[in-house]
Recover the amino acids of this structure.
């Protein structure tokens, strides 16, 4: 298996705080082939004349990266690790290409539940003191009812967004992940504390997508003290250890399936 | 009287200005998310809130605990000094009221005071009426130009500015004593969309050497009506002379606020709303490709704008369209250093090359895109370039904590030698921002061949102050981490491990170090204040016969920021200045 690491936001291929470099070198020391890349138009990569819209081009770029590793290293199965915008692109590439057998995403798409909304409001209460309690008391009923109604309705138009990118409707996302899991892709969702106003307890993914059985087969971690770009060495080390362990399990699982009679 | 309503009004004005949405559409109690404000807009808003209120605020809090105008206002009410937004009467321009306003209006103006939102609307309308009466009476005086919406007779509430703060939008201007014509002129000059009043448009900035259309890598003219229309929009907003289909908005000097405007304009012309993030990641051609141009709704707008951009054939100029960059590994005894070599076009190769020296840590990440764009432009102009990473940084081998300034000085020397060899030149200019300036002056004294020119951009002359600044920024970031974050206890700055030795080396940088620069010319690029701080060592250099050229450049560029949107990724002023300084064959 080979690992592809892609851009996080606008940061070039070294990753935030050189995280991609540190991760790649840690995994390489354990024998995993890794490729860090700049997508078209980012870092040192130029965009081709016939470039597709960004979302589509990112998938094409990742497929080219896999083609390249396949040619030079004779690797046919790939894992993709994506953070933030990288998570979105990684998911899209996994859906588009059967060579992706493992997908790790930090702070990708997230979907609220009634409990996550409740957590959000109660945090506000704990942190805001009695003064806020006055206004909170006046407005809580209205907002909570509205929020819970929105969540329980689970409207297909409900979307979350970041930097202008809209999350797909909940049902679409659920079906996509189910497709990957049914295909045998090892999927790991990780959410940092930076997402806590949207994702804020370990069981949230399971509860948000309870009708899909991928919740029992995909891994989900909530790391409340981690942040979006791994701004501390401790977070970087924690994530690297987590990814290494997960990849080890994913690789073992892939090997088992390959060797099965 | 509580000042909260006024704070709320001011906040609504801020959000209206940065988002382009009418003030009337904002609700104090709905969350920003519910009102359609994304993180891009909120980032801009946080900057504007800092400017207006003096309170630094991370935009993510507006997605979290401060997600409504009401909550924000409550925070500001708690945090601001008591005298800010205190209830004081709004001063009424006496000449306007006394000489022109009828008695009734005069009485009404003096009755309507205070910072209530409604009162201010009424007051502004009365002022407008008074202006009109003043002109009709033939005795104009100093007037406050009305907002575009009122001048147009529109229904939008006007922008409200606190008299205690700098106005964001139209600036009151005196008009000459010539009655109606002057008033009309004033209205016309102020009758711009709110966001246009932020940028006073200077003459278009041409790229240095933009007499040819092929100075930029992979430049290609827009090829269809949609591309031309978008190019016309970008030309206006970016104030550049030309935009190609392979250009990226941010690489041309755009920033998030301009991107917002571009998105609105593109939607107005084409009917398609695109995500703002696409302006960061995509070229003009990519954006145009995805826009479906329905002839009925888009054609008129597109055809008008398309006519403004003359499509020219991409005439062969003798230059290769694509100057491929080459990754290189170098260094002794092990090639542990990584670099990217930009060869010059063969037919126009200049006799000198440019070496880019990175600043430290997060500043190097921040400047990467800028260096890439500048290197491409110089290479297209015939100047070969080399960008590289020091040992234990970027792509080069070594863990963060192995970073060592003494070794980095040697890395600069090695990179210089490599560039001379690869480019086949005898003269090399070094570009060295921030801490790299200190490295460059030391390396210049050790290099077998001195650099022709040292371009020192906002040099770090007091290492102690610099380290304190970095630690302060780091502490601020850590304080904002979820649940206080987790730290290993090792030394680190903004996600990069640092050794005690490195910190000591950095603290040891002093102004006197700069007197040792060995070069023909030092070009000091700095804000006015920083340039003044350099007087002593500049004088010392000049006494040694080193030419010193000073370029004043004041940029709103956050060197340590991780955010994509709060400052221009590739500030045009810096790009054009450095290109001009580095492209010349002869030092003036």
């Amino acid at each position: 298996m080979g690992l592809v690491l892609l851009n996080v936001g606008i940061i070039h291929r070294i990753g935030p705080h050189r995280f991609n470099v540190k991760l790649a070198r840690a995994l390489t020391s354990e024998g995993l082939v890794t490729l860090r890349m700049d997508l078209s138009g980012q870092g040192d990569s130029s965009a081709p004349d016939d470039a597709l819209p960004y979302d589509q081009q990112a998938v094409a770029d990742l497929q080219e990266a896999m083609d390249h590793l396949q040619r030079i290293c004779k690797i046919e199965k790939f894992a993709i690790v994506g953070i933030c915008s990288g998570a979105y692109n990684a998911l899209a590439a996994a859906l588009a290409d059967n060579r992706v057998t493992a997908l790790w995403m930090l702070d990708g798409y997230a979907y609220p539940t009634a409990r996550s909304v409740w957590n959000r409001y109660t945090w506000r209460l704990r942190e805001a003191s009695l003064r806020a309690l006055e206004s909170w008391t006046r407005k809580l009923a209205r907002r909570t009812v509205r929020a819970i109604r929105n969540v329980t309705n689970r409207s297909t138009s409900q979307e979350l967004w970041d930097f202008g990118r809209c999350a797909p409707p909940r049902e679409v996302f659920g079906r996509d992940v189910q497709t990957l899991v049914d295909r045998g892709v090892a999927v790991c969702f990780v959410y940092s504390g930076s997402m806590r106003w949207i994702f804020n307890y370990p069981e949230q993914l399971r509860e948000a997508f309870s009708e899909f059985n991928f919740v029992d087969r995909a891994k989900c971690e909530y790391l409340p003290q981690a942040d979006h770009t791994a701004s501390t060495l401790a977070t970087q080390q924690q994530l690297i250890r987590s990814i290494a362990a997960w990849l080890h399990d994913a690789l073992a699982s892939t090997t088992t399936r390959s060797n099965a009679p | 009287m509580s000042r909260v309503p006024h704070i709320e009004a001011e906040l609504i004005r801020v959000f209206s200005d940065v988002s382009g949405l009418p003030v009337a559409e904002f609700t104090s109690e709905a969350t920003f998310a519910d009102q359609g404000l994304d993180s891009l807009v909120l980032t801009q808003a946080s900057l504007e809130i800092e400017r207006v209120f003096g309170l630094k605020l991370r935009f993510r809090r507006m997605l979290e605990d401060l997600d409504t105008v009401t909550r924000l206002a409550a925070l500001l009410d708690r945090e601001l000094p008591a005298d800010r937004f205190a209830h004081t009467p709004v001063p009424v321009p006496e000449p306007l009221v006394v000489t022109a306003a009828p008695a009734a209006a005069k009485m009404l103006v003096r009755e309507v005071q205070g910072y209530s939102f409604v009162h201010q609307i009424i007051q502004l309308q009365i002022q407008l009426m008074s202006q009109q009466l003043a002109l009709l009476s033939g005795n104009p005086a100093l007037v406050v130009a009305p907002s575009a919406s009122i001048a147009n007779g529109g229904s939008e509430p006007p922008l409200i500015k606190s008299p205690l703060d700098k106005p964001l939008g139209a600036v009151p201007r005196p008009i000459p004593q010539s009655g109606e014509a002057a008033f009309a002129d004033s209205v016309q000059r102020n009758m711009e969309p709110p966001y246009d009043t932020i940028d006073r448009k200077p003459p278009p900035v041409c790229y240095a050497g933009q007499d040819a259309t092929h100075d930029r890598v992979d430049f290609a003219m827009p090829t269809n009506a949609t591309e031309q229309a978008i190019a016309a929009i970008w030309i206006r907003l970016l104030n550049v002379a030309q935009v190609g289909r392979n250009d990226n908005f941010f690489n041309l000097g755009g920033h998030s606020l301009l991107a917002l405007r571009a998105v609105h304009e593109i939607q107005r012309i084409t009917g398609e709303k695109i995500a703002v993030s696409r302006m960061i990641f995509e070229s003009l051609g990519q954006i145009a490709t995805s826009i479906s141009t329905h002839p009925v709704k888009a054609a008129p707008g597109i055809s008008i704008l398309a006519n403004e951009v003359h499509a020219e054939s991409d005439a062969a100029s003798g230059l290769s369209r694509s100057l491929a960059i080459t990754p290189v590994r170098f260094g002794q005894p092990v090639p542990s250093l990584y670099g990217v070599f930009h060869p010059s076009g063969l037919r126009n190769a200049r006799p000198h090359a440019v070496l880019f020296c990175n600043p430290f840590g997060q500043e190097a990440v921040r400047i990467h895109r800028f260096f890439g764009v500048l290197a491409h432009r110089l290479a297209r102009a015939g100047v070969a370039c080399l960008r590289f990473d020091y040992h234990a940084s970027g792509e080069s081998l070594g863990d963060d904590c192995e970073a060592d300034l003494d070794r980095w000085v040697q890395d600069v020397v090695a990179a210089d030698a490599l560039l001379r060899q690869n480019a086949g030149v005898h003269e090399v200019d070094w570009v060295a921002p921030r801490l790299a300036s200190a490295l460059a002056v030391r390396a210049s004294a050790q290099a077998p061949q001195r650099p022709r020119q040292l371009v020192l951009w906002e040099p770090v002359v007091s290492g102690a102050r610099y380290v304190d600044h970095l630690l302060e920024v780091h502490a601020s970031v850590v304080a904002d981490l979820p649940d206080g974050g987790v730290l290993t206890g090792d030394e680190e700055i903004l996600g990069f491990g640092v050794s005690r030795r490195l910190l000591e080396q950095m603290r040891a940088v002093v102004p006197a170090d700069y007197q040792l620069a060995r070069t023909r010319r030092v070009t000091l690029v700095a804000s006015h204040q920083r340039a003044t701080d350099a007087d002593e060592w500049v004088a010392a250099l000049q006494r040694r016969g080193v030419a010193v050229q000073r370029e004043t450049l004041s940029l709103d560029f956050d060197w340590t920021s991780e955010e994509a949107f709060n400052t221009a990724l590739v500030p045009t002023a810096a790009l054009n200045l450095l290109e001009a300084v580095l492209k010349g064959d002869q030092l003036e």
